[in-house]
Fold:
Amino acid sequence: MKTSQELLSSILKTTQMGQTGIRSVLDTTLEPELRRALTQQLKEYDGIETEAHAIASQRGWELQELDSAVRFLSNMTVRMRLTGADATSKISEMMIQGNTRGLVKCLRGQHHCEGKDNRVDTLTQKLIDTQTNNIRQMRPFL
Structure:
């Protein structure tokens, strides 16, 4: 079972991973619609990350951040996977895969969390809804 603090750390890491993935592709030549969608998703992840930090700060919790090595490896992996590929379709595919992994992680964390913490539950659901919407947004770009 996870504590609410552990779940909040997981939310934080998931949003940071999403931001890392999006930032890794924003310097690629993108269709304007795809760029707009990714920029909006980046803002949504940033808002959820900010809210997670606020909850932790109010409770005196220290959250685990996404490791810098994971960020670096993610960035390198994205760049390698885009080599020689149709960037729009490949980026959409990678974003769908990343959001799906994050969605599964959030759902699993939500189901295995002991006790009920309304603010953490609400933020978890917000991230789940965001990821579900992100997947829906990326589908037309495949």
About this structure: The chain has a mean pLDDT of 94. The chain is about 80% helix and 0% strand. Helices lie at 4-25, 32-59, 68-82, 87-111, 118-138.
